[in-house]
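Ligand-bound model needed. nicotinamide-adenine-dinucleotide.
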Amino acid sequence: MRISVIGTGYLGATHAAGMAELGFEVLGVDNNPAKVAALAAGRVPFHEPDLPELLSKHVDDGRLRFGTSLAEAARFADVHFLCVGTPQGPTGAADLSQLYSALAGLVPHLTRNCLIVGKSTVPVGTAEALAEYVDALAPQGISVDLAWNPEFLREGHAVHDTLHPNRLVFGVTTPGAEWALRQVYSEAIAADTPVVITNLPTAELVKVSANAFLATKISFINAMAELCEITGADVTLLADALGHDDRIGRKFLGAGLGYGGGCLPKDVRALIARAGELGVGESVRFLDSVDAINLRRRERVIRETLDLLGGRTRPRVAVLGAAFKPLSDDVRDSPALEVAVRLHAAGVEVTVFDPEANRSASRIAPQLRYAPTATAALLGADVVLHLTEWREFRELDPTVLRSVARGRVIVDARNTLDPEPWQAAGWDFRALGRLVAPREEVGRVDPLLESA
Ligand code: NAD
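Prediction:
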């Protein structure tokens, strides 16, 4: 069985390398020649742990190739995975044009019966419409089956999640499609990965509703953070206490700056839009609040920062983090980058440091300054904002940084820093919804540090 992967972005590049690791011959196809050139040379054009090694291993052993020709993919593969983007369109609904153009380039060139498997995240009902489109384009005598196999990988853990998925969902309409997907995923199935066999709309909805649920959980705890802030409660302890209930669980209860990235924000809005089109907008009305709570966190940090800067002339802010989450350089709808950009627009001089995302951020926000290290970003800063929770930010030395910055205020918008060393080093430590006692109450500033 030979496999093509169409669209080799974050999802497709990882999927292609993962399929090669499982022993298949794989052709990855993308209409971005620069991306294809990088991948064909064994280089991953974005940051994803373990992917460079997996990619170069299989480019070198010849099992994995990349190209720009959908006609070649049509001749090459028995199973075609669709991994193109489904970005947010102007109305909030998903823009499905990449899917239609990929199929328009692929299907007329097919020379034998095959299975097309959608992995992109799509509004419910898309697969059935695409199946009709495929039927209309398929050459005479060629039978093309269409299945939906949504992807649940997490950026930053994509290789692990591709090779060891926590569940497999196959939306199929024929036994042949189920048989082919069972062949593709035979290793994971042999390892007892749960498999859900279902119809096309259920498979589409599983993915969209999983993301809506995760977004809701994050916005729920952020709504509680808003209450904590005015009542003197502590949202991190609240989340710990909630998380001890295994019906609730602690994951995705990290209050802070909220979610972002190329999936959750657009998937929530696409679900709202799709439900409206189907006449059941009321059913998901609560997702408007989920989205609004999420965006309010960004406003909250921007407002607090501007308040802290007061009437300073030439105010300066150091921003730690630009990626939407750690272990990634993905800045699509990144809360960190939006806060940085909006502070700059408000007249603040903003210097950003992200361990991996300086380059991707500077492509879409060239107006900001970018520093090569966290320490360099803090040089002369009045306020420090911790906006993406990279592990290395937890290991910064607040005593050293004290002599670098001009001001002594840090806002931990991810609630993952330990306030104590910062306060002990004389910083005014602010958090979101978290009870951080003023410095005097936490403990006196070490006189030795004061004189250092
Ligand atoms: P992406 O934008 O990184 O990748 C899409 C790729 O498709 C791009 O490289 C683009 O050049 C290519 N492309 C577009 N039109 C094409 C065409 N006609 N022919 C060939 N290539 C074409 O997006 P992504 O993050 O990889 O997401 C892809 C899909 O997977 C989306 O629907 C997303 O919601 C879903 N998804 C993403 C993740 C994730 O973590 N990134 C996880 C699960 C699901």
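The chain has three domains: 2-197, 207-293, 295-440.
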